């Protein structure tokens, strides 16, 4: 049976499509960069999660099958509790523990996170991307594609240092505050380091 999983950042967060005609229409009308072919087993596992866990207590979405940290929140008993896909789970756990993040509704240095999801510093997203690329498994590459290419996460970073010219007309304190502000930007896309064998 043909199956397609549609993922979204809005409820319902995923939808399992089994009608071949609708699958064909969706694929033809979709941006090919946002479509990912997966093994039957991976699609079946994701479909089970979509059908069962989508109304979980997490802040929206689901924990990726075989992991405990890859999704909004986590379902681990403690820091060392990892899922079957432990390499990928380690990457997700470290990303969840990003020391520079903005929770939903949190404001800092001139920006507010109005998203339903936590926003991480761009350095944390870059480390997460590299960790998944280094694992280079079907699961790691799928998680990377979902997070960076399908959901298209936004990160934040400090503005580049201001030059003296940009500080003209401001007191030292005003210039320091202006130049220290942070801003949102799209995270870089996920590209596997090398194709799987």
TrEMBL record:
Sequence ranges assigned to domain Phospholipase A2-like central in this UniProt record: 63-158
Name this polypeptide is given: Phospholipase A2
Location in or out of the cell: Secreted
EC class: hydrolase
EC assignment: 3.1.1.4
Broad class of where this protein is predominantly found: secreted
Superkingdom of the source species: Eukaryota
Annotated SUPFAM superfamilies: Phospholipase A2, PLA2 (SSF48619)
GO molecular function, one term: phospholipase A2 activity
């Amino acid at each position: 049976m043909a199956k397609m999983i549609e993922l979204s950042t809005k409820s319902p967060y995923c939808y399992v499509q089994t009608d071949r005609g609708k699958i064909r229409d969706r694929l033809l009308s979709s941006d090919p960069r946002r479509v990912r072919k997966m093994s039957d087993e991976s699609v079946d596992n994701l479909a089970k999660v979509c059908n069962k866990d989508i109304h979980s207590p997490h802040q929206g979405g689901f924990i990726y099958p075989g992991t405990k940290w890859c999704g909004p929140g986590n379902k681990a008993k403690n820091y060392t509790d990892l899922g079957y896909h432990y390499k990928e789970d380690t990457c997700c756990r470290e990303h969840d523990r990003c020391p520079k993040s903005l929770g939903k509704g949190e404001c800092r240095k001139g920006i507010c996170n109005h998203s339903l999801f936590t926003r991480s510093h761009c350095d944390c997203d870059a480390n997460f991307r590299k960790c998944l690329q280094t694992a280079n498994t079907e699961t790691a590459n799928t998680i990377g594609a979902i997070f960076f290419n399908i959901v298209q996460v936004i990160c934040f970073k400090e503005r580049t240092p201001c030059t003296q010219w940009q500080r003209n007309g401001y007191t030292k304190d005003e210039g320091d505050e202006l130049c220290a502000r942070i801003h949102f930007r799209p995270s870089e896309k996920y590209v596997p380091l090398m194709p799987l064998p």
